[in-house]
Amino acid sequence: MHRYFLSKLAQSLLLLFGVLFLVFMMVRVTGDPSALMMPRESSPEQIEAFREKMGFNDPVLVQFSDFIAGAIVGDFGNSLHFKTAAMPLILERLPATVQLASVGLLIAMVIGIPIGLVGGFTPGSLVDSIGRFIALLGQSVPNFWLGLMMILYFGVKLGWFPTFGRDQWNSVVMPAFVLGLPVLGQIVRLTRSAVLEIRGEDYIRTAKSKGLEPKTIYIKHVLRNVAIPLISVIGVQFGYMLGGSIYIEAIFSWPGMGGLLEQSIGWRDFPLVQAIAVFTSVIVLALNILTDLTYSIIDPRIRYGR
Amino acid sequence: MADNDTFIPQTGDSLLDVEKTFKDRLAYFGRFLWRDQGGVIGVIVFLIVVFSAIFAPMIASQSPFDQNLRDSKLPPAWNEGGDWTHPFGTDSLGKDIFSRVIYGARVSLMVGLFGVLIAGSLGLIVGAIAGYAGGRLDATIMGGVNLILSLPYLLFVVFIAAVLGRSLLNVILIFGITDAPIFARVTRGEVLRMRESGYVESAISAGARWPRIIFSHIMPNLIGPLITLATFEMSAMIFYEAGLGFLGLSVPPNEYPTWGNMLSAGRKYMTSYPWMASFPGLAIMFTSLGMNLLGDWLRDVLDPRLRRSRK
After folding, report:
1. How many whole angstroms separate alpha carbon B253 and alpha carbon B268?
2. pLDDT tens series, chain A, 306 aa
3. How far is B38 from chain A (nearest CA, A)?
4. Residue B35 in contact with residue B59, Cβ under 8 Å?
5. How far apart are CA B131 and CA B190, in angstroms?
6. Is residue B95 left, alpha or beta, with left meaning phi > 0 and alpha meaning psi from -120 to 50?
7. Surface of B (212-241) touching A: CB under 8 A
């Protein structure tokens, strides 16, 4: 167990290093980073002063070690737009994004799991067809467009929900639904196929031939085994939602990290863009480790199978 | 949609049973297509999109670039005040939305096609090496691949696009390179499975040389899974390209009309002139839906093992 955890941790640290390296390289490989970070109309003297200040005139290795050292303590330099440190700006926006992703995940689970279960137990039924249609929609509808359409109909025409911001209690409903729809589709698909697969397993047949009541079989044998793949997908998808909320936050003016990222791209505020990219990767990696751990606690086959 | 769980194969439905003439193969695909209505829709939608992209100048009623401020913000033809010279209405500069949607298919398909070609070739090479070599090399390559795949994809594409700047070539390269790991993983898995399956081993022991093994034993079995994957990935790339356009990070708007750019421009007028963003969005959804159905169907046809349990 400890070894498994440690090797996961080591892998993630390695990846984190890889992410930092990639971010560092990307900003420099395209030429002069100060050209990227300074306003287009800056004079050569301003650019030179900026280069000196940011340390772009130092040798690359020195720059890289400075960058890594800063990243470890969460220092990604100052935002060019706000003129303050980038990290606190992100942390300030974090709760809004976490709220959005949590509500989205909750919506996806509450709707998706029952539909998937029913679909798996009665393949070909009406609920199953609806479930598969939802899964297809979740895969194909562009979320940025769905967001706009929902604002138009449920926000402007019907006036059911606020169209932007985070001030009212029901502000979160529309953006969370849009963010959760692809996940909803995936949960339906996965639950359905897991139920189908487990229903054909030998231990279910054994349980039936022992004369167990169907209710006991469903709850004790089927549901518990369906939970295993679901947990892993939910963990991964939560990370995806935290990193993928950029369009939705932009459309609904949701004051989270994704909205900040969209704005900072517009401002060409690269230190901020860079900080958001690294920070979100760290969160996603941490979530992946957590998911793996939960997974291996629930399902001993993972721990001992290696 | 046909229900796959109650699907019972009939005799003559396997490529192994029929004489492998071209006509038989065609008939086989045809029978399969007919049974899966989702697949029919997918194929039709895909053909419509390809057709619009190729014959855009003939289908589009207007030039997609012509501005005419007098005719700006016209509603679609079936709304009050609209007329059939501009079936989907016009945008804020008076450009014809219908023509722009038709021309937009070109960029989307180009990004999808070339992106998948690059990603597929890179992934095929890397994955085949990993699967064939095995051992430490395999572990290293797959370690890297899995690590990349666990990153928040959208975020990295956005970051790279923001750094590189807007151009069609950049967008294609970004997708081509960042998507290669998925192809590598699938290729490697298939190669590994084939190596253990016995028939490659029999071929080797029968004295077949490696070109023969690769081209007549391994490649034909790789094509199915890779084509299926390519369809899904192409759909994803079209989706992401539109997303980048929406953020103002894809092809510059003055070069070519793209669905993402149209969405991005129409977003400002969403509440008063909703058609400016509705139609490009519908085009993306239509294409994506069609390609997903096509992919589901291809998976069923090309990989009989998966026919029973769709995942």
Report:
1. 16
2. 677 778 778 877 888 888 888 888 877 766 666 766 776 677 777 777 777 777 777 777 888 888 888 888 878 777 878 888 888 888 888 888 999 999 999 999 999 999 998 888 887 788 888 888 888 888 788 888 888 888 888 877 787 877 777 777 777 888 889 999 989 988 998 898 888 888 878 888 888 888 888 778 877 788 888 888 888 888 888 888 888 888 888 888 888 888 888 888 878 777 888 888 888 888 888 888 888 777 777 776 666 554
3. 11
4. no
5. 8
6. beta
7. 235, 239
Q: Are B38 and B1 in contact (CB under 8 A)?
A: yes
A144 → closest Cβ in B147, B248, B263: B263
Cα A32 to chain centroid, rounded: 31
- Which residues, listed in sequence order, are joined to residue A78 by a DSSP beta bridge? A85
For tokens 């606020």, what's the residue? A162
Q: What are phi and psi of A85, to 5 degrees?
A: -60, 140
Tokens (6 digits) for B241: 């390209």
Length in residues, chain B = 311
Is B267 an 8 Å CB contact of chain A? Answer: yes
Q: Which residues contact B126 (CB under 8 A, 6 or more apart)?
A: B141, B145, B180, B184, B187
Which stretches in chain B have pLDDT values below 70? 1-21, 25, 28-29, 31-36, 72-74, 77, 81-82, 84, 303-311
Give A27's contacts (C-beta < 8 A, 6+ positions apart): A33, A36, A270, A274, B163
Q: Which among A156, A190, A262 has the least Cβ separation from residue B247?
A: A262
Residue of B nearest to A194 (CA): B311
Given its phi and psi angles, is residue B76 left (phi above 0), alpha (psi -120 to 50 degrees) or beta? beta
Taking the C-alpha atoms of B91, B96, B99 and B105 in order, what is their torsion angle to the nearest 10 degrees? Answer: -10
The pTM of the full predicted model, rounded to 2 decimals, is: 0.81
A-interface mutation test, from B1, B49, B158, most A Cβ less than 10 A away? B158
Q: Which residue of A has its CA nearest to B280?
A: A145
B268 interface with A at CB cutoff 8 Å: no
Cα–Cα distance for residue pair B257/B274, rounded to 1 Å: 18
Residues present in chain A in total: 306
Residue B184 neighbours by CB distance under 10 Å: 28
| Minimum-distance CB partner of A15 among B150, B158, B164 | B150
Please report residues of B whose CB lies closer than 8 A to that of A281: 151-152, 155
A114 exposure class (CB count in 10 Å sphere: 0-12, 13-18, 19+): middle
The ipTM of this complex is: 0.78
Choose the mutation target among B163, B261, B297 for the interface with A, i.e. most A CBs under 10 Å: B163
B147, B235, B285: residue with CB nearest A18: B147
Q: State in Å, rounded, how far the first CA of chain A is from the last one.
A: 11
Chain B positions in Cβ-Cβ contact with residue A11 (cut-off 8 Å): 143, 147
